[in-house]
Design goal:
Layout: H1 14-17, E1 18-26, E2 30-37, E3 43-50, H2 57-72, E4 82-87, E5 91-97, H3 104-111, H4 116-135, E6 138-139, E7 148-150, E8 159-161, E9 168-169
């Protein structure tokens, strides 16, 4: 198992550039924290993936691929923007833009229902992300309301797709089967 260097490149030390803040969320492999860039005071989200949880070569490959895919999709207005990836002895840290508006899932629950117009607007954004991913040869494979975050609390806040941990690159014409 090759976890001594997951990213296979020398990265700077995260703590040199960022101050870590409160825990924002928890996933299967990673914990997301608020982090503040020291020079600018700007807030970001940092997903820290504990190396001890990467038990197989596939797990390590999945982390590499997730970061690669985020870079590949960079610039799309509805995809979470990656700032950079860092690695130390215990974890891989992925620094991304902060989306402080919460999950689409929570907003659906909180609202009770959307108007047809608003639902259509959200559906258009989501289908647009899928189209953009597919046109760049990426399948997200984990699209659900929990994996869409609002940038802020505003009613008309931009929506961003997150969590490319199960995503894969594909070539046209190749069939995918999942069990």
């Amino acid at each position: 198992l090759q976890t001594d260097s997951v990213l296979q490149t020398k990265t700077g030390n995260l703590k040199q550039f960022f101050n870590m803040g409160k825990k924002l969320g928890q996933g299967q492999f990673g914990t997301t924290f608020l982090c503040v860039e020291k020079v600018s005071g700007k807030e970001y989200a940092c997903k820290s993936i504990a190396k001890r949880k990467l038990l197989t070569d596939e797990d390590v490959e999945d982390v590499r691929r997730e970061i690669q895919i985020m870079h590949h999709l960079a610039g799309h207005p509805n995809v979470i923007q990656i700032l950079g990836a860092y690695e130390d002895a215990v974890a891989v840290h992925v620094v991304m833009e902060l989306c402080a508006g919460g999950e689409l899932f929570d907003r659906i629950i909180q609202k009770g229902h959307y108007t047809e117009r608003k639902a259509a607007e959200l559906a258009r954004i989501i289908v647009g992300v899928v189209e953009a991913c597919h046109s760049l040869g990426v399948m997200h494979r984990d699209l659900k309301p929990e994996n869409f975050l609002f940038v802020n609390q505003d009613e008309d806040s931009p929506l961003k797709t997150i969590d490319f941990g199960l995503s894969v690159f594909f070539r046209p014409g190749v069939c995918f089967y999942s069990i």
